[in-house]
Write a structure and sequence with these properties.
The structure is a single chain. This protein is of the alpha/beta class. The chain has three domains: about 5-125 and about 170-195, Rossmann fold (3-Layer(aba) Sandwich), CATH 3.40.50.620; about 220-270, Adenine nucleotide alpha hydrolases-like domains (SH3 type barrels), CATH 2.30.30.280; about 280-355, Translation factors (Elongation Factor Tu (Ef-tu), domain 3, Beta Barrel), CATH 2.40.30. It is built from seven helices and 17 strands. It has helices at about 10-25, 50-65, 75-90, 95-115, 160-165, 175-185, 210-215, and strands spanning about 5, 25-35, 65-70, 120, 125-130, 140-145, 170, 220-225, 230-235, 260-265, 270, 280-290, 295-300, 310-315, 320-330, 340-345, 345-355. The strands form four sheets. Strands 12-15-14-13-16-17 form a six-stranded antiparallel β-barrel. Strands 3-2-1-4-7 form a five-stranded parallel beta sheet, with helices on both faces.
């Protein structure tokens, strides 16, 4: 019997993942990571909290599978929260889920799998893995979109390493969320009524700007009209803003304005009409390849997890960088976000947005 280590967050998706794999004949063992406690409150219910780990243990007991919890709070602070704060202080918009997948969740799942002699790792992500022995790609496995377009999470998995992808099982990739919840209800799993995980798991009220305000301090600077150069007001810290943002600007102009650029050298936030935040061309760095990439290729590119991927041309540059040129301008790509490349449903790779071209 092959053994699989399932990352269990206490939520519906990872709980049903463990159940489905057990039904398929695997020896299942659940592992939960304690990653963060909001000011050490044990009432915090984020997917990485002690409260969530208790739910994961109850679910594992309900299904009759082993479960262990691993405390990675120090590692999570160093690899996810501190880079998250640092990126915002530099006018960037990081994705903490991608940071966690890259530096915490999958490396440690694989490490634990090796320690326990397990063949595979698994998570509750809505994406698919196609085992691909093709000698053409030399990558062994392909990461594909999940079949539910409303839940597809392939975007946040583009940072996987080849060995992680090779040993990864994603049983929810060919299911829809309603189907997964129904399975949980039918089995009376403890997680069946648990709400969806919040966008940023370590921020209690989803108000990331308050979290940053408490940790990053503030330095005021000008808010400038990108078209006229006129000073329209004063911001309270560039980390409170991201490209495409409309709320919390604190200026009254009689017309909707959006953040179009953040200049860290001038400590300035630039704003303009919606069309000024439409970007066709940008550079990315720190590319992760899940398929072989030609020097220049056509594909579709996604710059937010829940946006559609759109046609573009990608030119690979030296130093693990690339230039992306969309066929049509896209809404508010932001430095720090990831741009992920797709060939149909297959994830080719991606990188972090570095520089925007007007």
């Amino acid at each position: 019997m092959q053994k699989v280590i399932v990352g269990m967050s206490g939520g519906v998706d990872s709980s049903v993942t463990a159940y489905l794999l057990k039904e398929q004949g695997y020896e299942v063992e659940g592992v939960s990571f304690i990653l963060y406690e909001a000011r050490m409150k044990n009432t915090f219910t984020g997917c990485c909290s002690i409260e969530a780990i208790k739910d994961a243990l109850l679910t594992a007991e309900h299904m009759g599978v082993k479960h262990t919890a691993v405390d990675l709070r120090n590692e999570f602070m160093e690899k996810v929260i501190e880079p998250f704060i640092e990126a915002y202080s530099k006018g960037m918009t990081p994705n903490p889920c991608i940071l966690c997948n890259r530096h915490i969740k999958f490396p440690y799942l694989l490490k634990i799998a090796d320690e326990k002699g397990a063949d595979f790792i698994a998570t509750g992500h809505y994406a698919r893995v196609l085992k691909d022995p093709s000698p053409i790609t030399h990558y062994g496995s392909r990461l594909l979109k999940g079949i539910d377009p409303k839940k597809d999470q392939s975007y946040v998995l583009y940072v996987l390493k080849k060995e992680e992808l090779k040993r990864l099982l994603l049983p929810l990739g060919d299911k829809k969320k309603d189907e997964v919840r129904e399975i949980a209800r039918t089995l009376n799993l403890p997680a069946a009524k648990r709400p969806e995980s919040q966008e940023i798991c370590f921020i209690e009220d989803r108000k990331y700007f308050r979290f940053l305000e408490n940790l990053a301090g503030s330095e005021e600077g000008p808010i400038i009209d990108v078209q006229t150069g006129k000073n329209l007001g004063t911001h309270k810290g560039i980390y409170l803003y991201t490209v495409g943002q409309r709320k919390r600007l604190g200026i009254a102009t009689g017309k909707p304005l959006f953040v179009t650029k953040i200049d860290t050298e001038k400590n300035a936030v630039y704003v303009g009409p919606k069309e000024a935040a439409m970007i066709r061309e940008f550079d990315v760095f720190d590319i992760n390849r899940l398929m072989g990439l030609s020097p220049e290729f056509r594909c579709t590119v996604k710059v937010r997890s829940m946006m559609p991927d759109e046609p573009a041309t990608v030119t690979v540059l030296p130093d693990n960088k690339a230039k992306i040129v969309y066929d049509e301008p896209q809404w508010a790509p932001a430095p720090g976000q990831s741009a992920v490349f797709y060939d149909g449903d297959a994830v080719m790779g991606g990188g972090i947005i570095e520089r925007l071209y007007s």
